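Our working data are protein records whose layout never changes between entries. Instead of coordinates, the fold is spelled out as a row of discrete tokens. Here is such a record, shown just as it appears in the course material:
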Amino acid sequence: MTLTERINAFIQLGERILKDITEDTLFNRTLNNAFTHNQWFTPEYCQYAIASIAKQWLTTKALQNWIKSYPNDKFNTTNPKRVAVIMAGNVPFVGFHDMLCTLLLGHHFVGKSSSKDGGLMQAIVDLLIEIEPQFGYFITLTDGKIDNFDAVIATGSDNSARYFEYYFGKYPSIIRKNRHSLAVLSGTECDEDLEALANDIFLYFGLGCRNVSKLLVPINFNFTKLIEAFKEHNQIINHNKYANNYDYHRAIYLMNKVEHLDSGFFLIKPDEGIGSPVGVIFYQNYSSIESANEYIALHTDMLQCIVSSIPSITNSIAFGKSQNPELTDYADGIDTIKFLSSL
């Protein structure tokens, strides 16, 4: 397959996705039924995830601009490798970017989907092969053991990363560990900013590494306006698994007299940690923008995204952008195209 053929197939896939999710199609039924395998994968979040992929990534402009930022020979490998991609199951379609990178470079995608995937990756692979049958020779997808591969991209927890490093140490690899995202607030944010921040926090129930789980706020920050702006997400408490997490941590904090604020559907707790439990948002005070940047620098290896409207905050993105990454927003800051083209 030529690079042009591969690009055109993914452009058609984006168009097909946006069409199929509006009709009674097999693909749409798979999205709607994923929650029977994984209760975190609600139809709304599955629809949001794949629509975002189609609109943000699978367009002529997005793909061509992305590819133009690399030397053309990066995408014309003469020695295709079999790349094992071990996918997490925390949010819908979390392995799609790795598959896109692998296939655009002309390598073979050997994917291991999570047991929590709910058939989503298989459904998207089926659509892609229907559009371009030649991809059938380049894609292997399983939820079991993988073998016969030349390189590895694995995403998981800090514990699983140690397992990956042990078993795949002899292969060229990208091993991703736990990462979290934070927001730096000034206290002068408008309602629109805070509503966008709410999406950064609550989409996918806060389970993704791009979900904001920690707030850095100035001393004496008033949370009233923030809680009010977040109320559009209060229906999240109707989800059984989310509500169980919220109720559990509220009970623990009350019994142990731990300082916290209770909004009725999420808790806000002062804490020096970064990764908060489901239903809880951690916060920490900063004394100056310099001290906030120092905190970010100290925890760089633990951070996926920094969200802020303060121009001087290091490497920050706008509110509402954490769950709508660009093609160049590589997980853990590791350029997947560069890695794959070096094989």
